[in-house]
Amino acid sequence: MAKVERGSIAVVTGRITKTRCDPVPGEASSCGMQVETPDSVIDAHGTRFIITVAK
Amino acid sequence: MKLNGIAIWAAFLLAGCAHSSVVLLPDEDGGHGEISIRPASGQGGETVMRDANSRANLTGAKPSIQPLGAKGLKPTEAALLASLPPPARSFTLYFHEGTTQLAADSVGMLEQIRAEVARRPGAEVQVTGHTDTVGSNTDNDALSRRRADEIVNWLATKGFDRRMMSAVGRGERELKQHTADNVSSAANRRVEVLVR
Description:
A: mainly beta, two-stranded antiparallel sheet, 0% helix, B: three-stranded antiparallel β-sheet, 28% strand
Protein backbone atom coordinates (compact mmCIF):
# COMPACT_ATOMS: atom_id res chain seq x y z
CA MET A 1 0.00 0.00 0.00
CA ALA A 2 1.35 3.42 -0.98
CA LYS A 3 0.95 6.43 1.29
CA VAL A 4 0.28 10.07 0.50
CA GLU A 5 1.12 12.42 3.33
CA ARG A 6 -0.55 15.68 4.36
CA GLY A 7 0.28 18.64 2.14
CA SER A 8 0.97 16.45 -0.90
CA ILE A 9 -0.46 15.82 -4.31
CA ALA A 10 0.18 12.66 -6.34
CA VAL A 11 -0.85 11.07 -9.61
CA VAL A 12 -1.18 7.31 -9.75
CA THR A 13 -1.10 5.80 -13.21
CA GLY A 14 -0.22 2.52 -14.87
CA ARG A 15 -1.57 -0.94 -15.52
CA ILE A 16 -4.02 -1.19 -12.66
CA THR A 17 -6.19 -4.27 -12.78
CA LYS A 18 -9.84 -3.66 -13.59
CA THR A 19 -10.83 -6.64 -11.48
CA ARG A 20 -12.39 -5.68 -8.24
CA CYS A 21 -12.49 -8.14 -5.38
CA ASP A 22 -14.00 -7.81 -2.00
CA PRO A 23 -11.39 -7.85 0.73
CA VAL A 24 -11.51 -10.32 3.54
CA PRO A 25 -12.96 -8.43 6.51
CA GLY A 26 -10.14 -6.79 8.41
CA GLU A 27 -7.61 -7.31 5.62
CA ALA A 28 -6.46 -5.12 2.76
CA SER A 29 -7.78 -5.86 -0.71
CA SER A 30 -5.31 -7.77 -2.88
CA CYS A 31 -6.71 -6.34 -6.11
CA GLY A 32 -6.15 -3.02 -7.83
CA MET A 33 -4.04 -0.27 -6.35
CA GLN A 34 -4.42 0.83 -2.77
CA VAL A 35 -3.34 4.21 -1.43
CA GLU A 36 -3.55 5.37 2.14
CA THR A 37 -3.96 8.97 3.23
CA PRO A 38 -4.10 10.08 6.87
CA ASP A 39 -7.91 9.92 6.74
CA SER A 40 -8.85 7.53 3.95
CA VAL A 41 -8.02 4.29 2.20
CA ILE A 42 -8.46 4.49 -1.56
CA ASP A 43 -8.81 1.44 -3.84
CA ALA A 44 -8.45 2.09 -7.56
CA HIS A 45 -9.35 -0.38 -10.28
CA GLY A 46 -8.41 0.16 -13.90
CA THR A 47 -7.98 3.90 -13.83
CA ARG A 48 -5.71 6.88 -13.24
CA PHE A 49 -6.29 9.20 -10.38
CA ILE A 50 -4.97 12.28 -8.60
CA ILE A 51 -4.91 12.50 -4.82
CA THR A 52 -4.61 15.78 -3.01
CA VAL A 53 -4.19 15.69 0.77
CA ALA A 54 -4.59 19.00 2.56
CA LYS A 55 -2.14 20.10 5.24
CA MET B 1 7.90 5.09 -7.47
CA LYS B 2 6.94 2.06 -9.56
CA LEU B 3 5.01 -0.97 -8.37
CA ASN B 4 4.49 -3.69 -10.99
CA GLY B 5 3.97 -1.18 -13.75
CA ILE B 6 2.05 1.21 -11.56
CA ALA B 7 3.67 4.54 -10.94
CA ILE B 8 3.11 7.25 -8.41
CA TRP B 9 4.41 10.42 -9.91
CA ALA B 10 5.87 13.56 -8.49
CA ALA B 11 4.27 13.90 -5.15
CA PHE B 12 5.18 17.38 -3.92
CA LEU B 13 4.27 19.72 -1.17
CA LEU B 14 1.29 21.96 -1.70
CA ALA B 15 2.10 25.61 -1.25
CA GLY B 16 -1.22 26.78 0.06
CA CYS B 17 -4.31 25.51 1.73
CA ALA B 18 -6.15 22.88 -0.24
CA HIS B 19 -9.01 20.51 0.34
CA SER B 20 -8.34 16.81 0.28
CA SER B 21 -9.80 15.20 -2.80
CA VAL B 22 -9.52 12.37 -5.30
CA VAL B 23 -10.00 12.90 -9.04
CA LEU B 24 -10.85 9.91 -11.21
CA LEU B 25 -9.28 10.35 -14.63
CA PRO B 26 -9.92 8.46 -17.86
CA ASP B 27 -7.25 5.97 -18.89
CA GLU B 28 -5.04 6.64 -21.87
CA ASP B 29 -7.33 4.45 -23.99
CA GLY B 30 -10.35 6.51 -22.97
CA GLY B 31 -11.86 3.92 -20.64
CA HIS B 32 -11.92 4.15 -16.90
CA GLY B 33 -12.39 2.01 -13.85
CA GLU B 34 -13.66 2.95 -10.45
CA ILE B 35 -12.37 4.08 -7.10
CA SER B 36 -13.62 3.14 -3.68
CA ILE B 37 -12.93 5.29 -0.67
CA ARG B 38 -13.09 4.11 2.92
CA PRO B 39 -12.31 5.97 6.13
CA ALA B 40 -8.89 5.03 7.49
CA SER B 41 -10.51 4.54 10.87
CA GLY B 42 -12.37 1.56 9.50
CA GLN B 43 -15.60 3.06 10.74
CA GLY B 44 -18.17 4.19 8.21
CA GLY B 45 -19.18 3.00 4.80
CA GLU B 46 -17.52 2.88 1.41
CA THR B 47 -18.01 5.55 -1.26
CA VAL B 48 -17.54 4.45 -4.87
CA MET B 49 -16.58 6.76 -7.75
CA ARG B 50 -17.71 5.38 -11.12
CA ASP B 51 -17.55 8.36 -13.47
CA ALA B 52 -14.39 9.63 -15.15
CA ASN B 53 -13.54 13.30 -14.68
CA SER B 54 -15.21 13.44 -11.30
CA ARG B 55 -13.91 14.63 -7.97
CA ALA B 56 -14.57 13.25 -4.51
CA ASN B 57 -14.12 15.82 -1.81
CA LEU B 58 -12.63 14.03 1.18
CA THR B 59 -13.32 16.83 3.64
CA GLY B 60 -16.18 15.89 5.89
CA ALA B 61 -17.65 12.75 7.29
CA LYS B 62 -18.59 11.23 3.92
CA PRO B 63 -16.97 12.00 0.55
CA SER B 64 -19.11 14.01 -1.84
CA ILE B 65 -18.68 13.32 -5.55
CA GLN B 66 -19.13 15.92 -8.27
CA PRO B 67 -18.20 16.12 -11.96
CA LEU B 68 -15.15 18.26 -12.68
CA GLY B 69 -17.29 20.45 -14.90
CA ALA B 70 -16.05 23.49 -16.78
CA LYS B 71 -13.53 24.43 -14.11
CA GLY B 72 -11.67 21.20 -14.72
CA LEU B 73 -8.56 20.36 -12.78
CA LYS B 74 -6.91 22.69 -10.30
CA PRO B 75 -3.73 24.36 -11.55
CA THR B 76 -1.50 22.18 -9.36
CA GLU B 77 -3.21 19.05 -10.65
CA ALA B 78 -2.95 20.14 -14.27
CA ALA B 79 0.72 21.01 -13.80
CA LEU B 80 1.45 17.62 -12.30
CA LEU B 81 -0.29 15.82 -15.16
CA ALA B 82 1.57 17.91 -17.71
CA SER B 83 4.87 16.90 -16.12
CA LEU B 84 4.28 13.18 -16.60
CA PRO B 85 6.43 11.36 -19.14
CA PRO B 86 4.63 9.99 -22.19
CA PRO B 87 3.21 6.48 -21.83
CA ALA B 88 5.49 3.57 -22.66
CA ARG B 89 5.51 2.51 -26.29
CA SER B 90 6.18 -0.99 -27.60
CA PHE B 91 7.46 -2.24 -30.93
CA THR B 92 7.71 -5.74 -32.39
CA LEU B 93 10.33 -6.66 -34.95
CA TYR B 94 10.43 -9.96 -36.86
CA PHE B 95 13.37 -12.08 -38.00
CA HIS B 96 14.28 -14.61 -40.64
CA GLU B 97 14.28 -18.21 -39.44
CA GLY B 98 17.23 -19.26 -37.34
CA THR B 99 19.03 -15.92 -37.71
CA THR B 100 19.43 -12.47 -36.22
CA GLN B 101 18.60 -10.92 -39.59
CA LEU B 102 15.56 -8.67 -39.50
CA ALA B 103 12.67 -9.36 -41.86
CA ALA B 104 12.48 -6.73 -44.58
CA ASP B 105 9.31 -5.11 -43.24
CA SER B 106 10.86 -4.70 -39.78
CA VAL B 107 13.99 -2.89 -40.87
CA GLY B 108 12.16 0.42 -41.13
CA MET B 109 10.92 0.08 -37.58
CA LEU B 110 14.44 0.51 -36.24
CA GLU B 111 14.30 4.17 -37.15
CA GLN B 112 10.96 4.54 -35.36
CA ILE B 113 12.50 3.03 -32.24
CA ARG B 114 15.52 5.31 -32.49
CA ALA B 115 13.26 8.35 -32.79
CA GLU B 116 11.13 7.24 -29.86
CA VAL B 117 14.19 6.78 -27.62
CA ALA B 118 15.63 10.09 -28.75
CA ARG B 119 12.52 12.08 -27.86
CA ARG B 120 12.50 10.83 -24.27
CA PRO B 121 15.16 12.21 -21.95
CA GLY B 122 16.52 9.35 -19.84
CA ALA B 123 14.55 6.73 -21.75
CA GLU B 124 14.74 3.12 -20.63
CA VAL B 125 14.70 0.43 -23.32
CA GLN B 126 13.76 -3.15 -22.53
CA VAL B 127 14.37 -5.64 -25.34
CA THR B 128 13.01 -9.19 -25.15
CA GLY B 129 13.92 -11.75 -27.80
CA HIS B 130 11.82 -14.75 -28.81
CA THR B 131 12.00 -17.67 -31.24
CA ASP B 132 9.66 -20.16 -32.84
CA THR B 133 9.76 -23.81 -31.80
CA VAL B 134 12.23 -25.00 -34.44
CA GLY B 135 15.39 -26.26 -32.72
CA SER B 136 16.31 -27.12 -29.16
CA ASN B 137 15.37 -25.07 -26.14
CA THR B 138 19.03 -24.36 -25.46
CA ASP B 139 19.68 -23.12 -28.98
CA ASN B 140 16.52 -21.03 -28.95
CA ASP B 141 17.40 -19.43 -25.64
CA ALA B 142 20.71 -18.36 -27.12
CA LEU B 143 19.20 -17.24 -30.43
CA SER B 144 16.52 -15.15 -28.73
CA ARG B 145 19.16 -13.43 -26.62
CA ARG B 146 21.28 -12.69 -29.70
CA ARG B 147 18.25 -11.15 -31.40
CA ALA B 148 17.69 -8.89 -28.42
CA ASP B 149 21.39 -8.03 -28.29
CA GLU B 150 21.30 -7.13 -31.96
CA ILE B 151 18.73 -4.40 -31.32
CA VAL B 152 20.55 -3.08 -28.26
CA ASN B 153 23.82 -3.02 -30.19
CA TRP B 154 22.19 -1.11 -33.04
CA LEU B 155 20.77 1.47 -30.64
CA ALA B 156 24.18 1.78 -28.98
CA THR B 157 25.72 2.61 -32.36
CA LYS B 158 23.24 5.50 -32.52
CA GLY B 159 24.66 6.91 -29.31
CA PHE B 160 22.25 5.60 -26.71
CA ASP B 161 23.57 4.63 -23.29
CA ARG B 162 23.87 0.88 -22.85
CA ARG B 163 23.24 1.29 -19.14
CA MET B 164 19.69 2.39 -19.98
CA MET B 165 19.02 -0.67 -22.11
CA SER B 166 18.44 -4.30 -21.18
CA ALA B 167 18.31 -7.41 -23.34
CA VAL B 168 16.86 -10.78 -22.38
CA GLY B 169 16.05 -13.92 -24.36
CA ARG B 170 12.94 -15.92 -23.69
CA GLY B 171 13.55 -18.62 -26.28
CA GLU B 172 10.35 -20.41 -27.21
CA ARG B 173 8.74 -19.96 -23.80
CA GLU B 174 6.40 -17.12 -24.74
CA LEU B 175 4.98 -17.92 -28.14
CA LYS B 176 2.88 -15.30 -29.85
CA GLN B 177 1.33 -17.99 -32.00
CA HIS B 178 0.93 -21.28 -30.18
CA THR B 179 2.31 -24.17 -32.23
CA ALA B 180 3.55 -27.69 -31.77
CA ASP B 181 7.29 -28.29 -31.39
CA ASN B 182 9.50 -27.82 -34.46
CA VAL B 183 7.04 -25.60 -36.31
CA SER B 184 8.36 -22.59 -38.20
CA SER B 185 6.39 -19.45 -37.34
CA ALA B 186 7.20 -15.95 -38.52
CA ALA B 187 4.97 -14.50 -35.81
CA ASN B 188 7.07 -16.12 -33.09
CA ARG B 189 10.47 -15.09 -34.43
CA ARG B 190 10.43 -11.67 -32.90
CA VAL B 191 11.87 -9.10 -30.56
CA GLU B 192 9.67 -6.91 -28.42
CA VAL B 193 11.05 -3.49 -27.60
CA LEU B 194 9.54 -1.45 -24.80
CA VAL B 195 10.56 2.21 -24.61
CA ARG B 196 9.62 4.19 -21.51
